[in-house]
Amino acid sequence: MQRKMAWLVTMAWWFMAAASQVNAVGITTTNRLMAETRFATPCYTIDSGIPGPTVLIVGGVHGNEPAGAKAAESMCQWPIKAGRLLILPRANVPGLAANKRLIPGLETNLSNLNRNYPRAKQKDSEARGDLARAIWKFATDNKPDWILDLHEGYDFHQLNDKSVGSSIICVPLPTAQAAADEMLAAVNDTITNSSLKFVRRNLPIDGSLARAAGEHLQIPGMTLETTDKQPMEKRVEQHQIMVHRLLMRLGMTDESLPLGNFLNIGGQEDTPPPHATDKIKVALYKGSGTGGNGPPDLLRTLNESNAPTSLVEISPEEIRAGALTNFSVVIFAGGSGSQEAKSIGESGRAEVEKFVRNGGGYIGICAGAYLATAGYPWSLHIINAKTLSPKWARGRAVLKMELTSAGASILGGPPIVNVLYHQGPIVGPAQDTNLPPYEPLAYFRTEVASNDTPKGIMINSPAIFSGRYNAGKVICISPHPEQTEGLEYLVPRAIQWVVSAN
Question: What is the DSSP string of 235-264?
Answer without folding.
Answer: HHHHHHHHHHHHHHHTTSS-TT--GGGGSS
